[in-house]
Amino acid sequence: MGKLTKFEDLKCWQSARVLCKEVFVSSKKGELGKDWDTRNQFRRASVSIMNNIAEGFGRFSYKEKIRFLEISVASANEVKSMLYLFDDIAYYEKNKLIELHAMVDEAHNLTLGFIKYLSNK
Fold it and tell me: Cα separation of 101 and 62, whole Å?
């Protein structure tokens, strides 16, 4: 991995940003768009994924960086858990759920990969 100078260069942050945008756009519609509390939690969890990656990047020790990345992974798990609820209560169509699950998995896996990379330094 080459020298990283800004968090915007991180693949995990880029992936989380795409996910976050899709969460905001898609949560405006349907029943979820009317459920303010649940929609707000869904959005906050998705924002937490990308923001904790960015905040961790700004930390100086590997231990601190990894801690924020771990929080990002936990937020990705929260988003994924909410997607199962949305399936159970029919807040999204199946094809949108599949798309969102894939996006969460990508951000999650890329963040875990970055954690592994930092852990080996």
Answer: 29
77-86 pLDDT tens trace: 999 999 999 9
pTM of full prediction above 0.85 = yes
Q: What is the CATH number of domain 8-119?
A: 1.20.1440.60
Could you tell me the two tokens for 54? Answer: 């960015």
Residue pair 61/84 in contact (Cβ under 8 Å)? The answer is: no
Q: Are 73 and 11 in contact (CB under 8 A)?
A: no
CA distance 26 to 22: 6
Tokens of 20: 């976050």
Instruction: Count CB neighbours of 59 within 10 A.
Output: 14
Backbone phi and psi for residue 58, each to the nearest 5 degrees, phi listed first: -80, -5
Residues recorded for the chain: 121
